[in-house]
Amino acid sequence: MLDWKTLMDQQEKPATGDELKARVIDVLRSIYDPEIPVNIYDLGLIYDLAISPQGEVHVRMTLTAPNCPVAQSFPGTVKEALLCVGGVSAANVELVWDPPWSRDNMTEAARLQLGML
Q1: Spatial distance between the Cα atoms of 98 and 47, rounded to a whole number of angstroms
Q2: How far apart are alpha carbons 113 and 77 in whole angstroms?
C-alpha cells in the first residue's frame, strides 16, 4: 500500500510516461471502496485512464451501484489523491454508469481477497 511519505518523495522526481502511469495506478490502488474492502483499481471501478504528455490525468470510473452513498463525493476524493502524485499537473474524474459495474470487472487478486475464487 502506498503511503503519503512515498507520495511526497515521488513529487520531487520527474517521471516518464510509463512511470507516471505506474504512480497514478499506485495511488488508485491506495483508495478503497467504502463498502467493499478492495481498492478501486482492482475492484474494476476504473474504466479508463488517460495521461497527457503534460501530466493531465483523465479517469473514467464507476461505482458498484448508482445509489452508492458516496456517489457525490467519491470522485472528488479520487481527484484529490491524483493531484498528490508527482508529475500530475491536473486531474479530471468522470463518473459514468454505462456500462454498469459487475463482478466480472474485478481482478483475480480482488476475487481472491474476497474469497470468490
Answers
A1: 10
A2: 24
Helix or strand holding residue 57 (H, E): strand 56-61
The residue segments making up the domain with residue 31 are 4-100
In order of 76, 78, 91, the CA distances from 57 in angstroms are 14, 11, 5
CATH number of the domain at 39, please: 3.30.300.130
- The answer to the question of residue 85 being in a domain is yes
Radius of gyration of the chain (CA): 14
pLDDT per position in the chain (117 positions), as tens?
555 556 555 555 667 789 999 999 999 999 999 888 999 999 999 999 999 999 999 999 999 998 888 899 999 999 999 999 999 999 999 999 999 999 999 999 999 999 987
Is residue 117 domain-resident? no
